[in-house]
Amino acid sequence: MRPSIVLFGDSITEEAFGEGGWGAHLANHYSRSADVVLRGYSGYNTRYQYGGDCAGLPERTNESAGAYARACVEVAAECGLRVIDIWSKMQRFPGWESSFLRDGLHLTPRGNRVVFEEVVFALKDASLGLEALPADLPLFCDMDPNNPVKSFDE
């Protein structure tokens, strides 16, 4: 059975499958070895518990995002799970706010590239890189030109 990589999330994950998105890059990267599937939820205009009234909610500040990211990293460590700390990674680049985020939250193509590279590295580190997964179909260079059908029997 072909392995699956399932992406859970909100609008950021949903947009990952748009043009230049990290999910689309990941699906292309694993196209011969695994299915990359989106199981997300977009919070756009649906079931928003505050009905558009954001009064009293924490602002979307870098400080708040950093506190949230640190809490996520701590919980993952307590649970023995791998984590990709994108917030800390992006902080290392000058001008990251406009370079990686188009609206203060959603990723630009450059931000998507950073996420893609970090996810691929984490999967490889977990022994789930391309070299660890069998390809669905033989490579052209591995096919017998005199009997190409034989290459599909293996």
UniProtKB/TrEMBL annotation:
This is SGNH hydrolase-type esterase domain-containing protein. It comes from Oryza sativa subsp. indica. Belongs to the 'GDSL' lipolytic enzyme family. SUPFAM superfamilies: SGNH hydrolase (SSF52266). One of its GO terms (molecular function) is hydrolase activity, acting on ester bonds. Residues 55-114 form the SGNH hydrolase-type esterase domain.
